[in-house]
Design a protein that fits this description.
The chain has 267 residues and is α/β, with parallel strands linked by helices. 41% of the residues lie in helices and 15% in strands. The chain has one domain: Metal-dependent hydrolases (TIM Barrel), CATH 3.20.20.140. Strands 1-2-3-4-5-6-7-8 form an eight-stranded parallel sheet, sandwiched between helices. Helix 9 links the parallel strand 6 and strand 7. Helix 9 runs parallel beside helix 10. The chain starts with 6 loop residues before the first helix and ends in a 5-residue tail after the last helix.
Length: 267
Amino acid sequence: MTADALTGPVLERAPLRGVDVIDAHAHLGPYSRFYTPDPSAAAMVRVMDRCGVRRAVLSSTHGIELDARRGNEAAAAAVREFPDRLSAYIVLNPHQDPEGELARWAGAPGMIGVKLHPDLHRYPLNGPRYRVAWEWAQQTGAPVLTHTWTGSDVDDPALLGEVFERYPDVKVLAGHAGAVAEGFPKVIDLAARFPNLYLEICGSFFTGRWLARMVGELGAHRVIYGSDFPFIDLRYSIGRVLFAELSLADRRTVLGGAYQALLKEQL
């Protein structure tokens, strides 16, 4: 393997250098479905330092599972503790006063977008209780990261087609890009139809070859690096980008440039 500016530090067992890496999909706190040794903000920052990741954008696992209010409080506290390293999404649970949560946190320092998890909240992505999220995102230009899973009755990426018909200017990150191999071609086709749909690439079934195909068909500016840390170790997730068969410029764009470009202000 020939080393370049991105793979060289990895082969030297050193943090990345000369590239601005933003992890667009991370989590904070313990999760009921499996054990993570240390799901704290401090642990996340330690791993980021080891890898050369400048910033991560997180949502609280407590928020996406049980209690959006307490979860958003925890996320905001993490951002206050590490303002130069962490930003957060406002979790909106359609069953737990999404209007109130958005009013409480919109505009708060470091709370830069909205996180939806239709699968855990058992509510369809195109349902009316998410209207507050889409209206706010369209008005402000803030991004919405939503969990997607091909074949799901509540967050199959195809449901985003209806969202974009109603709210064409919203900027949506399709978390996991449909999640499974049979869904990746479908989500590529969907993103080709809707220019404000971005494919976020964390997930257990994703590969560097799928990344190369997404970049080849959509452009690197439509594909965004995320890790799902600590559910998935960001060292594994970032390696799929670093060693993908893509140009140096495209890998840099995926690792941070694409996400930075879609935001209304610099992180």
